[in-house]
Write a structure and sequence with these properties.
By secondary structure, the chain is an alpha/beta fold. Helices cover 46% and strands 14% of the residues. The protein contains seven helices and six strands, in the order αβαβαββααααββ. Strands 1-2-3-4-6-5 form a six-stranded mixed sheet, with helices on both faces. The termini are far apart.
Length: 273
């Protein structure tokens, strides 16, 4: 094989790899608006240093896990209930990571009554199921009732981080935000593109092989005396049975969902205190 042929085949391989990687990377969305405040304290329950610390915590989580976290406090729901307010605030303000708006929002309402609401969207629906919502509420409600709002919000942020990390590490979605479940399909598309290029190049190479012609029979490819069979036998060695336990995921939990006024799907839950 000539050096030019080796270079050509290497170039084909590179094209196949690049095609697959480009298609794969194109599915990794970016944060809708990274410049929006993620801690919106309309009820003025935080001081400036607490708000900045929470923004820093959330920013680090968003950067590492490609997952948005928003905390909103208010004393006025504007005629809506907590579910509608939380969902609409997330949708219409422009939060979320990637094309599926991956993330969650914690709403604290201090008005005619005290309540909290957790709204999830995109990957948040998968990572934070109904049971997790309940556990998150249990983790923060005592601090909320005691007025320790900063501690509650910090606990919430870290709890969400742990849930998202656990879900992505065990579901085929990496912490960089790339969906590894779609890798075979994306690489398949890239391989097809590369294959088309390869076929074109091979056709050109084949046309240059004027001296090579197919032979009429298989005997023309066989060297006489090169193979001598002196004997053969079959020996039964043994058998074995492999048993595989099927994991039962029925206890893993599920997420109840609904559509917001924007038409997007949300999960979530909450309560009063």
């Amino acid at each position: 094989m000539s050096k030019n042929t080796v270079k050509l085949l290497s170039a084909i391989l590179v094209l196949i790899i690049i095609s697959g990687v480009c298609v794969f990377a194109s599915g990794d969305g970016e944060c809708v608006n990274p410049y929006l405040a993620r801690v919106v304290d309309g009820a003025s329950v935080l001081d400036e240093s607490e708000r900045e610390n929470l923004e820093s915590i959330i920013g680090g989580i968003r950067e590492k896990y490609k997952f948005d976290i928003v905390i909103v406090t208010t004393t006025d729901l504007g005629g809506k209930n907590e579910i509608e307010y939380a969902d609409d605030y997330y949708d219409y303000t422009g939060y979320g990571y990637g094309s599926d708006y991956d993330g969650c929002l914690l709403l604290l309402y201090l008005g005619e009554y005290n309540a909290y609401r957790i709204s999830t969207e995109g990957y948040g629906i998968k990572a934070i199921n109904d049971r997790d919502i309940s556990n998150l509420g249990e983790d923060i409600v005592s601090d909320l009732a005691s007025g320790n709002y900063y501690d509650a919000f910090r606990t919430f942020s870290y709890d969400v981080r742990d849930l998202v990390s656990e879900s992505k590490n065990g579901s085929g979605k990496s912490s960089s935000g790339m969906n590894l479940e779609s890798l075979p399909a994306n690489l398949g598309i890239g391989a097809v593109v590369g294959l088309i290029i390869a076929l074109i190049v091979i056709s050109v190479l084949k046309a240059q092989l004027k001296s090579v012609r197919p032979q009429p029979s298989a005997g023309d490819y066989f060297v006489n005396g090169s193979l001598m069979l002196t004997g053969s036998y079959d020996r039964f060695v043994g058998s074995y049975v492999t048993r595989v336990r099927i994991k039962d995921d029925s206890s893993s939990g599920s997420s109840s969902t609904h559509r917001s006024s924007s038409g997007r799907v949300h999960g979530g839950g909450g309560g009063r205190f």
